[in-house]
Each structure stands twice: as structure tokens, then as C-alpha cells.
Amino acid sequence: MNTGNYTLSVRDLYYRYPGRGLVLRGLNLVVSRGEHVIIIGDTGSGKTTLARIISKTADLIYGGEVNGEIYLSGRRLSDIKSSELHKYIHVIGQNPYLHFTAHIVREDLYNYALRVTGSREHAARAFKRVVEALGLHSLLDKYFYELSGGEAKRVAVSKALIPNPELLVFDEPLMWLDDRGIMDFQEVLRVLRYLGKSVIVLEHRFIPIARLFDRIYLLDNGRLYDVTDKTLRITRQRLDPAVIDGKRGVREIGDTVLRALNITQKYNGRVVLNNVNIEVRRGESILIYGLNGSGKTTLLKILAGYLKPSRGRVERLGRAIYIPQNIPLFFTEETIGKEITEICRAWSRGSQCIEEGLRNCRELGLSIDESPFTLSQGQMVKLAILIARLSGADIILLDEPFSGLTYVDRAKLIDYISSSNSTFILATSNLDAIGDSMWSQLYGLEEGTLKPLNQIPTGSLKWASIIYEEIKRGLGN
Amino acid sequence: MRRSSVAWAIRDFSNLFIYSKKLEEYSTISRLSYASILLIASILTRLYLDGVASILGFSYITILALITISMFKGFKNTVRGMMLLVFFTGIALFTYLVSGLLGWSRQDPVSILSGTMYVYALFTSLSCFLQLVSIREWGGLMNRLGFKNTSLMMSLTLLQIPLIIIYTSEAYTTIKLKYGSKRLYKVVTPLILLTFYTTRGFAEAYILYGFHVGNALTKWSSRDLLLYLTSVVVLTGMLLLILIG
Prior knowledge:
- The complex is a heterodimer.
- Chain A is α/β, with parallel strands linked by helices.
- Chain A has two domains: 3-236, P-loop containing nucleotide triphosphate hydrolases (Rossmann fold); 244-462, 3-Layer(aba) Sandwich (Rossmann fold).
- Helix content of chain A is 32%, strand content 25%.
- The model of chain A has no long low-confidence stretch (mean pLDDT 87).
- Chain B has one domain.
- Chain B starts with a helix and ends with a helix.
- Chains A and B meet through α3, β15 and α10 of A and α7 and α8 of B.
């Protein structure tokens, strides 16, 4: 094979992290010039590892063992110095906020352009080119942590384009993006195609973007499988989500446990929430949909009793517990067993609570000696919900619990919530959870105003997870 | 302080550690000199003044530093950023004064007030230091002094500050609702872990992008006169206070 014809050529790639088993087992991949490729796969299947290997951080930072041949535009990866790698490839990681090397967007982009080009004149030209290509003018004077997830992703892409690399790799680009951010990303892909760049996207939420790619691969058991035709055929089928989801069992709804009346919240002179009213009864599961920055987290914190609203009042007839989007912030102990013991002690729930917690842990397939911080994202969310239920809190508030979860894990989480009798209020920025029939109340939050939503029978998680399982079926035979 | 304000107060506080967007109007040397003079003035006051004179000295430095911060960050943002510090020093001051009145502490109110003002002066001067000099300039400065690795570590640390403070605010909310106020110390565990992940992420960014520190330092700008003039005012005021005190 003439590797010079390809932007990326990977042959028989094996990788293991120090002290662990093989993550990649003989992976092969070629990406032609201008080709757009998406790699789908379960959490932990090795997608991020692949990105780390071709950006050289897998051995430089993680100290793993790489075996196999990798060529970038015909040059062997091991012959390319780290300092010149940006001419060939750029990886845009899961967390776009970690791409910044200065606090202000303008300075970050310009400094990088200066470093890459070495002259003020060329830097100014490169800076102007990427700012115009991705329409960043309104973001230039912002601090990076003021940007929304979608905006930060756009800046990270423009930064990656400064050295004009041939290949861009996106690791879970849809993570942290709301539905508008996903549309923004689709536009970014179109711009990159227009610029003739090769693109690899590593993503498990592939349905909204699958049609924009030339090839679709599935990463399973350390190897890649071409599933382009299969995926496009299956996603074209119009299944009736209502039939797939079926009807959930009827939940027992009790007395009112929380009532928010005319809640208005202002910050820095800006109205974050405007005259919000909501009544929650025991056993209900309520979903609040809103784009990033619409005020969901603020509303949850007010309902939890942590924030006091500028106007209006919250009548709370019980205690609430809050599970944040950044899920590791919920855990404080070194083992799952200690997490259970501590929550039962803190809420004076007695030894029965501990026994119940340990039993539920076994049912979820979790070891009590394991650290909660080493669990997968899906397991962490389930453990957090289990702990919240053990506390006996009357209301469990979940902020964006689906972030970083595969379709299958999302569907499983909905099943898990649905099987519980606790009262849930869940905030999300993606429509795909709305199709489920488990929600007793659905709301849309737009610019601080809360309005009831009708059930939307599209984009069902169950439907998406069935598609994914169908794509995986029969591989490796 | 109202319960609702704590999380946002932490975020506003973080603003006082991040350099301003209006830096380029002044040269690096003038900003660095001014910030150093404020810091040196605080230390000189601590060493050479006591009693009411030290309170006046620290107040003088604090006011000048706050005016400077307001110039770059705006008055409202400066006041909001200071709220957390005012809250904690207020509690400390109140506790000392009450315990003194009840006979549990032998320290006189003047030295307590002087200590409190010292905290303000030192904090606002340090805040000026971090707000007036950008990460790139710190890198350039350390590089010129021959501390290349230190400059990299310092840049990575300064970059993380806003994210870590946002995490702190989020962890505070979560743990308070999970365990109540008595076990708030537990926020430390997830924060240490997230700091580790963030550091690793920024280290990856360093490998991908590197830091440009080349000609980061600028020597002169016509607007520098204002900062040099204020520096002279600070020094003259301090000398007068030391002479009188």
C-alpha cells in the first residue's frame, strides 16, 4: 500500500495502558484526502485511545505501549516531532475548555498563530482566516470559561485550523452540546468539507450526523468494522418509537412535595428565570428541556433549596438532593461501600439502609470495594441515583445525566429511573429523552420561561439504542 | 451573606485572579512595576508601621489597588469579586472583637483591624499582580530569567484557576445538599481528582499547541504615564506615612 496517497494510514495497531490489557487489537484504518469518517463504539471501546495514539499523547502522557504502523501523509508518525505534528493532524478533545492556553479567545488564537507561523504578519493572516471561516467575531473578547460548550468547540476547531493540518480528529464532539450546538457542529463539518480537510469523528451518538460522512466504522473489541451501508440502511427505516417503547407501568402519584410559585431569578441585571411556576407530586418524574444557558441548572438549584430566588417562593415539603452534570463532583469517598455507609449515616437511615445499598449495588453489578471515580459515566450516574434514593430524599434533581452516555446507556438509565418510586426532576438539553412515555410532566425552558411541552414521538432513545444493537449484530463472524 | 450568593460569590471571586482584557493599552514593564510597587508597599507597611498608621497605610494601598482593578474589570465586578473576602474577614474580625470584649483575647482592636487591613492590602496587591500580567507575559518573563520549566508550570497553573473555582462552586452546592453543612469538608476529594484530570488535559493541550512566549514583553506605551504616575503617588504616600508614623 502506498501510504503517501492517504492522509492517515494505520496498520496492525495494538495498544495497552500501563498494567492493563490490550485496548486495541490489530486495528487497521485508512483515510483518504478530503474523506470524512466517523467511528462509533461503546464507552471504553478505545475511541479516545485511538485519538491519543495519533496525537502522540498515548505514550508521552499516558505511558502506554504502542505497536503497529502509523503514517500521516506518508510520513511515519514516530519520525514526526511533537513540535511539528500540528502540520499534519489536530485532535479536538472531548472537553473543549482544555484546549485553551490563554484565558481570552483572541489572545489564545493569536498566540497560537504566532507560535505556528513565527511572524506577526503571517499570524494576523492565519488568525483572520480562521475567524472568518468559523464566524468567531462575537466570541473573540470573551474569557474561554464564559463560552457555551458549542462555542468552545467552534473556537477549538478554528484553533486547530491555524496550522492548516490535513486531518482533524474530533473525540466525542457532541458531548456537552445541546440540540443547537449539534446543528452548529453539522455546519462546522460542512465548512471542513468545503476546505477539503480529512476528518475523523469518534462518537457514540452518531444518528444526528451519520449521513454527513463518507464511511462509518464500528470499533468493537479493539478492531474496526466498516458498517457504512448497514448503518445508513437501518437509520433510514422509520420505526414507530411509541411501539418500541411500549407503555411504562403506572407510577403511584402521591401528595404535593414541592410547589414553586412565580419564581424570578436575576443575575448581573439579566433575567435568568422569569415567573416560573411548577408543582411536583410524590412519585412523579418530570423532564425539563432547554438549551445550554436557558436557566435549567439555576432552576434545579432553586427547587433544591440551595438558591433563593430574587422573587417568588418555593414551598418544599421534603428534602432534595442534587446530582450535577459533572458527575465526579457528587462522590466523596474512596470506595462505593463507604459512599453507601456515609450517606446512610448522614441522613440517619440506620443499618437497613446500608444493607439495602449493598444489595442494590450487587444488582447493578458494582463492587463495593471499587472506587466510584473509576466507574464509567453510565455507572457513575446510576450509582449517584442509587445513593440519592438511599438518602431518602423526597426529590432527586438530575442535571444533564445523559452527557457522555451511549444510546444504550441512556435507554438503560431511563429504565432505571422509571423502575424507581422516587420523585425525579431531570434537566436535559437534548430532545432524544423526551420520546419516552415515563414522564408525568414535560416542560420546555426558553430564555428563563417555563412552558409545558407535548410528548414528542421522535428521537426515542430506545429506538436509537435498538439501531445501535442492530448495527453491532453479526460483527466478527 | 445570603445563602443564594455563595456559589456566585465564588465565581465572582475567581474573576480577581484572571488578567484583564484591556492589558494591551499599557506596556508589560509599567504594569509589572506598578503591581510590584503595590506589593512592596504592603510589605513595607507591615515592617515599618504599626497601630493607626499601619491601618491608614494598608487602607491606602487597598483603595489604590481596588481603583486599579475597577479600571480594568469595572466597579461592579470588583465589588462582587471582593464580597467573599469581605464576608470571611468580617466574620474573623467580628469573632476577634467579641472575644476581646469578653476577655478571651488580649489583642487590642487596633492591631486586629490592622491585621484585617493587611489581608485586604496583600490580597488586592496580589490580585493586581495576576490581573495586570498575562499568562504569556509570565511565561516570557520566566523564560528570560532562565526558568523555562517553571514558566510552563506556572502557565498551566494560572490557566486552571477559573475552571477549578467553577468546579468548587458546583461541588459546594452538591455536597451541601448531599451531606448538609457539617460535612462540607468532603468537597476536597472530588476537587483534587478533577484538578488532576484538568492538569492532564492542559498538559495534552501543551503537547498539541505549546505556549508562545517569544516577544511577550512590551516596554513602552504612551498610556504608561498613568501607571507610572500612580506608582509615584503610592511610593510618596507610603514614605510620608512612614516618616509621620
